[in-house]
Amino acid sequence: MFPNIIFLWIFGLIIVLISYYFDKEKTKNGVKKGLKIFKGLLSPFLSIMVLASFLLALVPPEIIEQYLGSNSGILGVIISAIIGSITLIPAFIVYPIASELLRRGASYMVIATFITTLLMVGVVTYPLESKYFGKEVALVRNVLNFIAAIIIGFAIGVII
Amino acid sequence: MKKYLKEYGFILLFLVFGTVSYFYNYNFGMNVSNVFLNMFIEMISFIPIVFILVGLLDAWIPSQKFQKYMGPDSGVKGTILSVVFSMFQAGPLYGAFPIVYILYKKGASVKNIFIFLGCFSALKIPMLSIEIGYLGIEFTLARTLVAIPLFIIIGYIMEYYLKNKDFKITDPTEVKS
């Protein structure tokens, strides 16, 4: 956790400095815009965190370990894949919850599957997607992505 | 003032709940506050720099330059460009559909369109940097390295599947008018 954050800040500040060196005006505008986006997202972000805090305080770690831990096996992965596919939550809101679940005994395979399906498969957005690609193509894309998401989840579970 | 109260009222209420819990030694309330405090510290310690990067990305990346090189004859170069171009984006998956429509209009190949869409959904740099902060660089690296080949395979499958079909991408906002 800690080294990652330091890495991000160093990486980020180097990018800002390089950008500033090449174009002061662009850099100022970019930073301003970024902070504006952050300000806009802060309130929904914090609200979700409050709700998640209540949920996590209510559910004992043993339950999390039983259903989302490494012993939950295929069932845990399938459940997380289905929930990930049908929910539509911005990923950046899910990461704090995912990291908290990992700390409480959830397995990497389950969390990875949940995140990948959340990102790649969109049941809720399927109607919108069909309008662009047609019903059949949108369905095929989602099914292929669902399979890929599960492969990625398993691979991460094996690697980490 | 009213606007801020509406936006942050819920969080303010929660802060009151947390403080009162500590005063009265209310266990459950203290537990909830601790979980929240941990999440908050974690978030505020690196999320600002991520959004500064998002803003910079937006200011620097001209999207028109990429589109030209993603056509049917673009080969490996087009594939690589599709991956890279998608990573320099931000926003949710449904935000990708209008971009994909423009790519299609500009003559990008079916394969590259679906590679772009896949990588857009899962490998945007702003998102990856948030992921590194929360889940660690090993997690993100593993996910990225496994995902890229899979998305390229999906691109090929889609191209094969749509070869003899009359595939079109339509813009639903245009149909209405």
Automatic annotation (TrEMBL), chain B:
| Membrane-related topology note | Multi-pass membrane protein
Q: Where in the cell is it found?
A: Cell membrane
InterPro entries, from UniProt? DUF318
Q: What is its main location?
A: membrane
The family database entries (Pfam families) matched by this protein are listed as: ArsP_1
Record keywords: Cell membrane, Membrane, Transmembrane, Transmembrane helix
**What residue intervals traverse the membrane?**
7-24, 36-57, 78-101, 113-137, 144-162
Its cellular-component GO annotations read: plasma membrane
Give the record's family classification: Belongs to the UPF0718 family.
Write the protein's name. Putative permease
Q: Which organism is it from?
A: Candidatus Methanofastidiosum methylothiophilum
